[in-house]
């Protein structure tokens, strides 16, 4: 039994994007608003609704994308003072709260650096690829700063084996060449 | 604050709260409150006060302890130690009928104690004399009050004479001085007069017995005569001078125990009897037993003891005719036996106790009133009674019941009621001179197997271990069978009960043996896991006849131990679990205590100098010698324990730097005194090289007091008594603690640097002070004198240590936590944050013993000589055993029992919680499942 082709209404339901042919000069019926993407909607709020929108040029989108990328690159630095104050306030004692905070302090920058490519993927175009590098670098730097804050905190808590006492367990006692005992022990 | 600092402060807080929990008291600790061997003539049944229904057993022991024991269960009602000068061993204990005091006389001191609770009543002392005899004046006279009876004492050594003391105050009423130069022997009191018996030495070496009768009211001499005993009586042959009896008698024998001569005191005639020539056997001992009551019949029993048998004869004395006649004789029985005398009204009963039976006869006729076979633990032929006292209940002509408190030949004091052992008290332990820990055999075999595995290569060790585990499977069914019982016992909160003879290993290593050597040559094995009960008890004199084991040296090896004693050529080998002797061939000559790779040096105190010898040969010339500076006398030498594990080789400071401990296994602490200048000095030596590492001098010290010292890990402590006779800024007792570090600078390992091995002879290139450890010390005032100190031991040395000190004044043992006596406590200022995080508190010159530190809580520990400690399998716990007069044992957890659930942990509640949660889950699971399905079917 051969599968019947789906009926036309199913096709129409599934294929909403092509509902409005781009080349059509026929205006929309009054009262009909085309479904807009969120970006378009936000643009439409800022800019006065023009009857015909001029599509932005490649340079313009690139500049916009670069601007956006820099924003993302700087974003971790904005959290830095808040985190620093939080870390300072929690003190150096081991508490479940501060342990969670420190854990996030380590996790966030590391995952951010690991997913660097994905974070900047929307802004990578052939035109912006090289110009994004400083932004990426700053992004990594900011995350490293965050990581540094975490390290500082861990050190404050005494969890970093930086002192002699941390390696004391691996140091051994001397062996003495002679062993002297009282006569009555023999 | 930092992590380790947090841990340190946590440990500090925990350590500060360590005490004995109320529910642990009497469970983890045990105490044998002992008296010593009761003296035959100073032991009696007596009502504690007139009209009392029950009687107590009063005794004065050979350790000069007066005590009252409840005859029902053998528990101690009260006791008092008499502390005369050390060479006095003789004493007297008397109690008048229907009196509420008992009188003791030791040395020149007569003391009256309240009979019911042992409170002190009065004391009269004659400092330059020795009390030779003490009797209670039973007769009623006008001068004495109705309820207090006076005492009559006989003094010798210095001033000879008889004195009558007031029974209420101890004041002297009259004195009869004796300036004749005869040696006073005894006093005896009849209904009318006091007889003072003295021995007059003749030119030929014999003795003449002189009897002086005195007026009890005035002390005036009434009569004096000398008995014609010349040639027969020799020193020590006078057997008996009947005391307080209606017919006081005097009996003596000749040297060879062939003839017995008896005199009724007051008459000059003597009756002579031939000692029954029991076959060819020589009579070794003749003992005369007579009633001590003034209104009892004048009958007495003479006990003849030969090497293998004993017999007795009963004599009657006729007061009117002064004649003594033999009434009947008791048949000879094999073995050794004891006779006791008891009186009811005027009747006199003799109780004969042998290894097998108890026989009661009346003094009137030889008919047996009662006979009981001896049942129980002691029915072996080896065991026999030495002496005892009895109480007999006679109804309608037959003995209804008899109870006898007997000193047995194995050193136990037992009460036999109608032939059955009611209680035994291990009084021989009161003479403990030395004690050692012994491992249980299972533990030792395991340690041996592990040692084998440790020495093999990995594959061979693995095969060995698998084989061992397969071999262990044979115990699996038994283990499985015992499992339900154990679990039930666990929930019931009871430890599985073990009998006295059975010793088994426990999971925590609390079950160990302590082997105690006593001053009478016995060795006793005690199971400390089972309230210190006697497991075995052997007489060393039987293993090596002719040698007096008064201070044997015990050294423990695997499963057996060696006994060495001066005069003994080859050491004795004894199995530590059974107490049976082993032959030297059976014992593998191996000493695994000391590693063989190292050069062995032994040191000993020879002629007041401490000398070190290469190897263990005594003949070799010393390789080093420590001679104390001029005039100083070595009073004590203490070494680090043979097994003294140290978990951490450094001390972590508050800023996370490390002060490295000076850990030298060869440390030895020598205490010396300079008598002339009241100076005590402490010398810390490296005993491998004899190098002096540290010295301290203390002036104005009372050097007649002991200077106890202890050495552990990298610290030492000692205690001093300040001389009160000179101008001191302070008086009292001091505890000095010193700690040794490799360098004063943190993170620095001193002149040796990071070298992993070291020689004591030339430890480093540095010379003089640079090569010596850095020592800091602090001194504390303590409220009491310390007679002995030792340090707790744990398995790995992770747990902080505790200094155990014996306080003879308050009869207790105190465990001082290490952090309290840390020499790094800041002086004169509050600790900085870093120091506080280490747990250091500001130095205070006085340490008050916290009541929580007392290990003995309500118990009174008399005469503790020494404390030994041993690690348990649990790291937190150290086993403690103290001996001396008393035996005391407990276990301490200086850093809290962090690896064991406390008694307060409710296992049932935990199980109930788990069960309740399980049931809850069963109920809630369907609900949750339904909710999840519903949520899937709902439009969000």
From TrEMBL, chain A:
The way it spans or sits in the membrane comes to: Multi-pass membrane protein
| Protein name (Swiss-Prot/TrEMBL) | ER membrane protein complex subunit 4
Family that this chain belongs to:
Belongs to the EMC4 family.
Q: Per the record, where are the segments of Low complexity compositional bias?
A: 17-26
Keyword Transmembrane listed: yes
Superkingdom? Eukaryota
Q: Which PANTHER family does its entry note?
A: ER MEMBRANE PROTEIN COMPLEX SUBUNIT 4
List, alphabetically, the InterPro entries matched: TMEM85/Emc4 (IPR009445)
Q: Where are the transmembrane segments?
A: 96-117, 137-154
Record has Cell membrane as a keyword: no
Its annotated compartments are: Endoplasmic reticulum membrane
Q: Positions of the region Disordered?
A: 1-60
Automatic annotation (TrEMBL), chain B:
- InterPro entries according to UniProt: Beta-prop_EMC1_1st, EMC1, EMC1_C, PQQ_b-propeller_rpt, Quinoprotein_ADH-like_sf, WD40/YVTN_repeat-like_dom_sf
Q: Subcellular location, in the record's words?
A: Endoplasmic reticulum membrane
Keyword Glycoprotein, does the record have it? yes
**GO BP term, pick one:** protein folding in endoplasmic reticulum
What membrane topology is given? Single-pass type I membrane protein
* Predominant location category: endoplasmic reticulum
Q: Which SMART domains match?
A: PQQ (SM00564)
Q: Which family does it belong to?
A: Belongs to the EMC1 family.
Query: PANTHER family attached here?
Result: ER MEMBRANE PROTEIN COMPLEX SUBUNIT 1
> What is the name of the protein in this document?
ER membrane protein complex subunit 1
Annotated organism of origin: Glonium stellatum
Q: Cite the source lineage.
A: Eukaryota, Fungi, Dikarya, Ascomycota, Pezizomycotina
